[in-house]
Amino acid sequence: MNAFTIKDLENLSGIKAHTIRIWEQRYNFLKPQRTDTNIRYYSSEELKALLNIALLNKYGYKISHINRMCAEEIRDRIVTIGNAEAQQERMVNDMIKHMVDMDIAGFEEQLDSYIAARGIDKTITQVIFPFLEKIGILWLTNHINPAQEHLVTNLIRQKLIVGIDGAFSHVSVKKSVLLFLPEGEHHEIGLLYTYYLMKSHGINVIYLGANVPLKDVEFVANLKKPDYVYTHLTSVAHNFNFEKFLHNYSIRCGKHPLVISGLLTQQYKKKAPENIYFKRSLAEVMEYVASLR
């Protein structure tokens, strides 16, 4: 059984921990267990219930009204919400539910139906990336089972590769970017998404993949002379030292500008070294990619 903290529920549902605690006291839909040290933890069923409740609440239903609904009525009401943004959020929530249940067939069926209806481009931007942003925090806190992670990310990886293969731009950009993940970083999805964005914008991409030693990055960068080197850090090995990585990159490859995105950039509070640039949100990544044209 998955066990989620109140912070996990906050990150996945968008409901503040303080509000979740108030709801627990006033309503019946959340009944957390407690550890021996009196810390709340929540089951998969409670996470799934909260995702549904949070969505209804966001789109106009009072929490007191939702509390009187049965689970089936809540699901029926969610389906009737016509707002396009709400439907995308419902899709992302359903993907999270499939993941925690390890219902990979259901997960793939939802992805395929969205791709069939809206195409791979909109599926990536409207569903896959928001899903990855939501569950990325679980990778950092180890509150997701490795088997769940591997099954889901491998499936998404397949869809992204199909999208990359089919990506095309009528504009050819005379800029090249070398993409890699450092040693200890195996979460390739964010980098593949960046690959997709860049190829869609006509940018020449040199893709090295995951878990690449800096000496190899240095060799290829010196050989190919890219305009930028790019990495996306989601979750790395426990012995990974971000500051040391930045220092070593500056020594080995400092003449090649490095752009870094991902969750780890949001946690790093110091000033970035010279010629290293952080992109701390999807909006900043999109702006950066557009600036290369």
Strand content: 5-15%
Q: What is the CATH C-level name of the largest domain?
A: Alpha Beta
The shape, in one word, is: globular
Residue-averaged pLDDT: 88
How would you characterize the largest beta sheet? 5 strands, parallel
Structural class call reads alpha/beta
Number of domains: 3
CATH superfamily of the largest domain: Cobalamin-binding domain
Helix % is 55-70%
CATH topology of the largest domain: Rossmann fold
CATH architecture of the largest domain: 3-Layer(aba) Sandwich
SSE series: HHEEHHHHHHEHEHEHEHEH
How many DSSP-defined strands?
A: 7
Distance between the termini: 48 Å
What is the strand and helix layout of this fold?
Elements: H1 6-13, H2 17-26, E1 33-34, E2 40-41, H3 44-58, H4 63-67, H5 71-80, H6 84-100, H7 104-141, H8 146-166, E3 176-182, H9 189-200, E4 204-212, H10 214-224, E5 228-232, H11 242-253, E6 258-261, H12 263-267, E7 276-279, H13 282-291
Parallel strand pairs: 3-4, 3-5, 5-6, 6-7
Antiparallel strand pairs: 1-2
Helix pairs in contact: 3-5, 3-6, 6-7, 7-8, 8-9, 10-11
